[in-house]
Amino acid sequence: MIRNYLTIAWRNLLRNQAYALLNVVGLSLGLACGLLVFWFIRFQTTHDAHHAQLDRIYQITTEFHFDGVSHSRGVPTPMWQAVRTEIPELTTSMCIDNRNALLATLDNAGKPQKKFKEKGKKGAYVQPEYFSIFDYQWLSSAPQKALGRPNAIVLSEAMAQRYFGTTNPLGRIIRLDNQLDLEVTGIVNNPPEGTDLPYEFFVSFATLTAHPEFRYGGSGIDHWGGVNSNTYCFVLLPENADLPHYEKQLAAINKKYHGDGHKSYAHPLVPYQEMHHSEIYYGAMPMKWIYIMAAIGVFLIVTACFNFINMATAQALRRSKEVGVRKSVGGTRGQVFIQFMVETALITLVALVLGVALAAYALPHFDTWLEEAGGWPKSIRWDDTLLWGYLIALFGVVVLLAGSYPGLILAGFRPVLALKGGVTARQIGGMSIRRVLIGFQFMLIQLLVIGTIVVNNQVDYMLSRSVGYNTQGLVQIPVPEPGKINQSTFRERLLTIPGVANASFCLFLPTTQSNNTSNFRFDTRQEDEVWQMNTKNADDHYIETFGLELVAGQNIPPSDTIRGYLINEKVVERLGLKSPQEAVGKNLRVWGVDAPIYGVLKNWNNTSFQSGIDPVAIFTMKDIHYSCGVKLSTSNMHQTLGAVEKLWNEYFPDYLYEQSFMDEEIARSYILENIMLKLIRVFSGLAIFIGCLGLYGLIKFMASQKTKEIGVRKVLGASIGNILGLFGKEIAVLIAIAFLVAGPLGWYFMNQWLQDYEYRIPINAGILLLAIGLTFVVAGLTASYESLKAALTNPTKALRSE
């Protein structure tokens, strides 16, 4: 029986190849997109799932209670020691990111042989207990032996191969940042794809204790007053732990070690598996994007199923006699229904196989395209049981959703009417069900179009809006050892290079995601302010190089250390002063140094447009000017930057030169938005294409249903325009009704999404009108072929066919 069903189903598909092709194309695209979305969500929601104790791993974080509440994943560096002392039953480990580390292998004479710049989150200072919390496979040595002493480094297998080739790396020496010589004491497995801790080398935490002079970017091993956002403290809770009990103990630690300032801090325990999606802790993939992608995946699959229903019911009139013959020779309603479901299953199976192949082919291209975000797996885990469960469930749902309604319609034909050709469009659902389905598709398409336009406009707005000064032609170069060079001489030599207009030594550029904050005291006030201020260390050429504007006072004087401050208008506002002039000459105490305010600068965005204007103070601290901002005034940047690099290599021959344009650095602040915009554009385009297939099926059905009506109208003098109007009116009404639902929904959801940005575009009528306009254009182009074909048909032929 099953073989008979399959044989007949295959013959029917071969007889109606256009129908089968449209269904297979629509379904395979929908299923491929659904599978890509599944891989995206699966990848993003299983980060670090390879750690066996993940549900017991927590991270101690920091809340700042100054003016409002802010959060950081970092903690004061001595937190680990306090937790071990006060809560000894917890396994505790510190982990300090070492970003953009310079590593060099040494020859037998102790001189650098190969130099490597490991960008991003490639290395960390860790304690041996780190490997009791997180799972790693040790290929050589063991945690306590390898990292229990100073000046030790453990490499990943890939890194050991990259640095030392096939030779045994154990015992070899690697120099870190041209300051510390470290012995390779162990090898571990390479980090997996889905992890937020993709470290490839580990330096023993004891190295920092043994070398207090070595600057690692933190506030000091024993200093409780500062928090570096890349200084993590992980704990492993016992099984069935009483979480409130440990939170109380952390509150006691906060009070004990922060002393009188403990009310300004809190150190909550946060499950590590939540960090990847946490917005307040700047997780890599906030859950809002997961929900958006899940909704898009469902939209695409549902749209493809609706297409199938439309196509199948459009074919029902043609198959009415077939059903009549089947029933007249004893076929039951159930058998006819099963026959159609088998056909649906066959089409779905072919579409699923093609969809999986298409998704597997597209996956590496998506990974390359979105490489910076790391949002996609580089390969497919075919051993994932959830993947196979998803495919089986997807197959069953699509067959049931796409095949049940048309199958019931066909099975319900009365054999006498079917054989006489008396089955009407009303008996197969008429136009009503198709109108509902197409209208629903148009609504989904318009929602996606509105979302795409809003995200696109918001990203363009953030990238094009001025941050408060001209960022074009600004280049940042590193200054590895600012205290060991004559910065004035280096700057003077830079200015002799044709095309270099200005230069300034600093710690941070005016706009950057890396910022320091500090408490401070103003003038004669007896206590520090309850809010903190961003601090930027720079020389007296900072404001002229970056084009910052003085609104009161004057620039700070040349100096090696703090002799005065520049503040922005936001500080004046927060201090409650009546004018910028009122602040000039007043005393400011920052980092324990009292000095006068020399001038007030016009506000600018010092982070990104996701946040507002922050209060900022600028002052000189020569020994930590680890960057140099260079202002270019030439179109021949290649030659100018080549000369800059040559000069830089004279001063820092043991380091690797790198540069970054400020425009590019600012754009990196919105990398997640850019990545998601690309994805939404692709999937929205595919949703529109799949929807067009459904619309084509509707117009084809309308044309077949109205064959006689069109013939009569043409005989009575109707023009081609009149005939096209029949189809155009139907489409226009569906689009308009869909827009009445999609417009308000799109406005509401995208308005909620925009609330995360301090500076945002308005969702005005223009955006909504553009969405409906695009829908009309796409629908008109899709419907034009079948509409014109019906309008141009010879009326006598049409009437004879009836």
Automatic annotation (TrEMBL):
Topology with respect to the bilayer: Multi-pass membrane protein
One Gene Ontology MF term: transmembrane transporter activity
Keywords, sorted A to Z: Cell membrane, Membrane, Transmembrane, Transmembrane helix
Parts of the chain that traverse the membrane: 20-41, 289-309, 336-363, 387-411, 436-455, 679-699, 761-783
Residues in MacB-like periplasmic core domain copies: 21-252
Residue ranges annotated for the ABC3 transporter permease C-terminal domain, each copy included: 295-402, 682-790
Name of this chain's protein: ABC-type antimicrobial peptide transport system permease subunit
Species of the source: Rhabdobacter roseus
Lineage: Bacteria, Pseudomonadati, Bacteroidota, Cytophagia, Cytophagales
